[in-house]
Each structure stands twice: as structure tokens, then as C-alpha cells.
Amino acid sequence: MSEIAYNGLVDFLCSALSPNDMRIVAKELWKRASSTEQKLIPYTMEEIYAMVEQSKKDSAAGLGQDSEDMFRELEEEFARDEEIELAEAV
User: Fold this and answer.
1) How many angstroms separate the CA atoms of 60 and 44, rounded?
2) Predicted model pTM
3) Is residue 59 part of a domain?
């Protein structure tokens, strides 16, 4: 997932979920991450700054996807999935 898409998704979730729902999602994500071999590794400040700078360069070069496009595509995908589920239920 691109940095732009990731940040857009996080922004969307933060605006759409209540604080209690965010805690529930965070606990579930932590539980899933902890139950796998892949552990979360903290970033250094230098790595974070490098990622931000790279994201700025990518955005200036027209790479990535803005959050409006990402959300539109997600809504279309969810609608298609819902149509498939309804068709399968019939």
C-alpha cells in the first residue's frame, strides 16, 4: 500500500470511527500482529523523516493516489462486493 493511500485510509478511519471503536480496532490489529511471526518494528525519527520526504517527492512527481480517488475506488469495490454477496445469497 502506498504511503498516500495508507495516510488517507488512516485519516478516513480516524474521522469515521468513535474513540471507542478506534480502541477496539487497535486492539484487534495489535492482537493479529502479535499472533503472527511478523512483529511491529518501531521506526527511527530519521526513517520517518525520510519516508515523509519521499512521500513529498512522489506526490510532486504525480505518483501515488490522492485520498478522494482512493475512497471512491474503495466505495466502488465495496458496492461490487455487496452485489456479489447479494447475488450469491439468492
Assistant:
1) 25
2) 0.37
3) yes
